[in-house]
Design a protein that fits this description.
Length: 382
């Protein structure tokens, strides 16, 4: 079986975030089950030629070109990808599109429908009701058609499924299936030695709230004067705000900015971390929390995080219901006994509810159920 995964953008700084990590994890899990996989995406920000892989997974990357100024990820595409989309999908037995309202994943999904290829769509919370003019246009000409006609539309939560139905005007096509994100199994790290190390691992973006992380520092430092507050992620406009706040609070000497971590460095940094903190709002299913769980690092999140209920129910982390509560929840997890209990719960939750093995098994079964009759592909990818 040959599966093509389409995602919007791959950059050295992981600018597109979670969907790329999910595509990498899923294609790796499927490859272990004998599926020949390939990722197709735009590439940008690399020195020299675009790589032939995404974090070790085979890929076909196209140079990104901006065609709609001011439209963010929705305004980039590649004429070569658009011209070759039909050929790309014809070489696959199953087309798996990590769908956003953009000019990369939508054309690939439409090409799969046109070519009669089995189509699996995964939206990662990126397609929800919107009053923006561009979103309304794309919904009218493409998004609703893809959601209705896909063989399967994967959602992370019932909230996401409801949002997709609203995009469809209240219609439920009956092709929905819940598939959580999974992460590869890891050894549980022991509680780190040394001063408390608190990690914010996300883009420096307004919705991610890095300033709320910094705002918790004075109270934590009052109890743990040697604690380190570590920010890691690409700056998308909020780093300056966070660092200025640290200066105004008098905690700059306790705040470090690491920049963007390479994918291979993320787990290493997490293993040095006592508590992972993600103050973002309306976060569907963050990969950083899943990766923290996989090595036994408890997390502090907000109530609108898609993993908040799982963390609270299992004891694998804490839910801060206000920005002011962040410091209290961090301090609670720095208690050695509480930390060790939460760490064990985090690791167990990763290995049960969010195991990549279980997720890949379910997806592999789904692919088998949507395959069209006929000979399998036996030629090389072009």
């Amino acid at each position: 079986m040959r599966a093509l995964h389409a995602v919007t953008l791959h950059t050295p700084t992981q600018a597109f975030g979670g969907p790329v990590r999910v595509a990498v994890n899923l294609t790796g899990g499927l490859a272990a089950r004998g599926v020949e996989t390939r990722i197709v995406a735009l590439g940008s920000g690399f020195d020299g030629p675009l790589p032939a892989d995404v974090d070790g997974r085979p890929a076909r990357l196209y140079p990104a070109r901006r065609v709609l100024p001011g439209a963010g990820f929705s305004g980039i595409t590649s004429p070569a990808l658009l011209a070759g989309a039909r050929r790309l999908v014809r070489e696959a037995d199953v087309v798996h599109v990590h769908l956003a309202r953009d000019l990369v994943t939508l054309p690939v999904a439409l090409a799969a429908l046109s070519a009669g290829r089995p189509l699996v769509v995964q939206t990662h919370g990126m397609v929800d009701p919107s009053d923006k003019a561009l979103a309304k246009l794309l919904d009218a000409v493409a998004v609703r058609r893809v959601l209705r006609r896909a063989d399967a539309v994967l959602h992370l939560t019932s909230y996401e499924r409801g949002a997709l139905n609203k995009v469809l005007g209240g219609e439920d096509p009956g092709n929905g299936m819940r598939l959580v994100n999974g992460v590869p199994a890891q050894d549980r790290r022991p509680r780190p030695d040394g001063p408390p190390r608190l990690l914010y691992l996300a883009r420096m973006q307004a919705r991610k709230r890095p300033a709320d992380f910094v705002a918790a520092a004075p109270e934590v430092l009052r109890h743990h004067p040697d604690a380190r507050f570590v920010l890691a992620g690409a700056d998308e406009g909020e780093l300056g705000t966070a660092l200025k706040l640290a200066e105004s609070l008098g905690v700059s000497d306790s705040v470090d900015y690491l920049g963007t971590l390479a994918p291979g460095a993320v787990l290493g940094e997490l293993r040095r971390t006592h508590v992972h903190v993600l103050p973002s709002v309306d976060e569907p299913f963050p990969m950083s929390v899943l990766e923290a769980l996989s090595v036994g690092v408890p997390s502090v999140v907000t109530p609108t995080n898609g993993l908040a209920d799982d963390l609270g129910r299992s004891g694998a982390g804490r839910v801060a219901r206000t920005p002011e509560a962040l410091a209290a929840e961090i301090l609670a997890l720095l208690d050695p006994a509480a930390h060790d209990t939460a760490s064990e719960a985090a690791w167990q939750l990763s290995r049960t509810s969010f195991s990549l093995e279980a997720v890949a098994d379910r997806l592999h079964t789904l692919y088998g159920s949507v395959l069209r009759p006929g000979p399998r592909r036996n030629t090389r990818w072009t």
